[in-house]
Design goal:
2 strands, two-stranded antiparallel ribbon, mainly alpha, about 40% helix, flat, about 100 residues
Amino acid sequence: MQDNKRVPALVMVICLALFVFCLIERQVRRALGSGQKMPGLYPGNQQVRPPGRMIPYHLSGLRLRVVGATDPPIIVISGGVQLHLLDLLGLEPTHPRWPET
């Protein structure tokens, strides 16, 4: 670090990332309900309570495919766990937020 003014900015970015991470984990656990167990997070389809680090791990496999300049982008979902997590988060992967042109 060359300047001490960058350190508070770096700490702020890290804190914001952790805040978003915690909000995602909280939303998934609230959507699961009292049972709080979800299959497919670990190999063998064990029913487990979703640990915070496994949620972004599974969502990291999502890909955004841009077809053309006038077509909306498509979210490529490679697994059922990703679709289940997006559903728990209240996101519609098949309906982009961008208006049709």
